[in-house]
Input
Amino acid sequence: MAYAFDVHAGDAEGVTAWHLTEDGARAERDRDYRPTVFVHASDGPLGALADALDDDPKVTGLRWADRYLDLHADERSEVLAVDVERVGEVSTLAREVRVRHEADFAPGTFRLYDVDFSPGFRYCVETGTDPSPARDLRTLAVRTTDEALARDDLTELRIDGERVAGDEAAVLRTLATRVGRVDPDVLVVSHGGLLELASERAAALGVDLQWGRAAGGVTQLSAASTYESYGRTGHSPARYTVPGRAVLDESNSFLWGQSGLAGLRYLVERSWKPIEEAGWASIGNVLTAMQTREALSRGVLVPWNKWEPETFTDARTLHAADRGGTTLAPEVGRHEDVYAVDFASLYPTIIREYNVSPDTVLCDCHPDREVVPELGYNLCPEDGFLGDVLGPLLDDRRDIKEALAEGASGGQRERLEAKSSAIKWVLVSCFGYQGYRNSKFGRIECHEAINAFARDILLSAKETLEAAGWHVVQAIVDSVWVTPRDDPEPIDSVCERVTDDLGVRLERDGHYDWVCFVPRQDGTGGALTTYFGKEASEGDGDDGDREPTYKLRGIEARRRSTPSFVADCQRGWLDALDDGGPEAVVDALERDLAALRSGRVDPADLVVTRRVSKPAGEYSRETRAVGALRRYDAHGVDRHPGQSVEYVVVDDDADRTRQRVRLPFEDASGYDADHYADRLVRAAETVLSPFGWDRGRVERALRETRDLSLSAF
Amino acid sequence: MQDALPTLEPGEVTLLRGGDRGAVAALVAAELRERDGLARWVDARNHASTYALTGHGDRRRLLDRVRVARAFTAHQHHALVRQLVREVRRPTSLVVAPAVDDLYGDDDLLAAEAQRLREASLSTLAALADARDLPVLVTATDPDAVSEHADRAIDVEETRFGRRFEGEDGETTTAYWTRGGWQTTIPYWVDLVGRVEPEPDQPVPHLEEVLG
Output
């Protein structure tokens, strides 16, 4: 089975598929391969298009085919299948059809299908090639740093973790030798740009460096770009590939970072995205690939653009439907003996168990089967598309959980955990993706129906728990937190009952000696998912000496931006709180403040991390992040919107913004103690806020402790 | 006081400029009170978030008379506008399309295609108003570009008294709309009984005070 695919550009046609052999890989050139796109229109225009495309040199074949135009179509329609000379010309052809050939017709006359597949994936699904690697993959990891790359500096690299330094030519020669000797199937690089830089420098210095398994050098597949997703700015670096190997760019792979090679391999098996494409894919891309495979297997075409709108509904239904999951804001304060129970994979399970899918919601064939709670949407009982896509993932996840519970160990355990994490990411994303506007098979009514079931299920669980003698302190979408009220039925037995009744597994997720819910900033009730609690030591006796463990959500210590010093202090205060209540926290804070003011804290522990959303010039305020951006710029290090900046605050009151901060790799011998003291007090306020303390009270308490300690002298 | 709100003309596309999402809801509410039939609402960017509608007036009755379909892509928006042609064969009092041009500005669209789709949608709406003698109300992200497809424009301004609508002919409509519903229009009463100048930083006098 082939695992890597070179899609030829320029004059060369076809695809070279690389098959893993025992000691390397063998190339097989497929010169006959032609990608196919499909077009649908009414007879007249489609005939005219066929005539026009007949003269197009990019087009090698035109055929008539029968396909389903969407998931809920009852019959196949006749469509024009257009075979294209080269993979790289598919998008050009699609654009020409849309803009040039459609010019004499109403917009939307030609509907195009199977257009925007990634090239390797397209080859696999069109030729029935399973890209799952046939044996373990050999990797070679080559890493540099942002700063070195910015300076085009190749005097130091890490090759498989080992530091290689010296003059540039020597380093490149070592690199070339290692690539040749290891002959990796997967090249892991810290930055895609490193491939290009090393090639260029090697050529200039006369070093024979060949990244790929065949001549052809490094190809840039796409340029760097900045994008908006879910209201956040992201940055994707340029993408590169080399012949005969898969490139994994660590700076551009969410899934590699989350689930490693084992997780990626699993997603390759399920999605048929070759490993290189799975590496840079978002979860949405992977999910789309899985859906595309399922759709094609059903004879359904994949639309290029989303034309299908929702139906006109009265605003009242919209009002009922346009709601998310149920939340019951937590009761602020400290609660004793708290159990958290949650529904395992709630949304995907609803999709499968209740058969909610774009093709089943509001089907034409079963108008009377109005089973969606609140909304009264009807649902088709026939096997839904989404359930078929997610079913294997749910089953695999369950099997992995069982294998882990049965005590899989060592490398086996690691692989299972990586797989499980990859599955988890797809499962948690699949529901939101139904509502995402550009998702190929997303349908808003399906998204709403899943939500309606979820609300109904959570409320049923809440009622059952209350009837069984439990008091609900908070409920969020798929989890409920309870404390015993009066002689409650054991929690596990209630969970079992709910599981049987609702068809979704409710399980115990945590047990806490106490949990503190933090109030919202504006003081109106409890903040969702902002709490900390001490985990109960389960089992019988004897572990009284065990280190207590705490669960934290949403508070400073959990935020990426918080310096590690502040995070460590805050975690430490939880012990103090457990032992001596709020006053003990104030004592600990006092000591931490003293350490800070004495200048003893290592600046490395005071690094603040911030994601930037725009270039330095576009910020209207002179923030610390702007100062950091200017400093990166002065070093020639690119920081794009969507990437993070790191800095230590050295003089927050400085007149010039860039003087307020230093970058971690600059010399930051001092720090602004006042600035960090303020952060520390704020973090303490969070810990004490469940007890009704505000900042004023924290400061008063600090003054009192200080007076007390003075009076001791 | 509803008479004081600008009315929409059947057969014309009215472009509402300025104001927030509530301004559209206010005009739709007023229009529905005056006319029979349903409002057909082609939504973009979640303008129909029913909160905007429910904040006003007789909410139950209103919600029953607004039929909404939301577009999330330019292609869906265009498909919905085309679908309107069939929808309005049934009793319809007005057509509403907030942010009518917005989805066509998405950067994942081919520029030439976006332009074609946008023009086609706007001329379909104009033709629909004309052929069915219906009022069509639109708002736009780029009002200047959309105005050539509109027969007239109404400007709305958020003031401390509420919302102030002004027609294209320069005639100010002394209609104000506040969160609580149809609070009587203060300028109307000011015209009637004379102006009470509030002290700076003083709360605006209640109607009862103005009336004495």
Summary: The longest strand of chain B covers residues 152-159. Chain B has one domain: 2-211. Residues 187 and 211 of chain B are 12 Å apart (CA to CA).
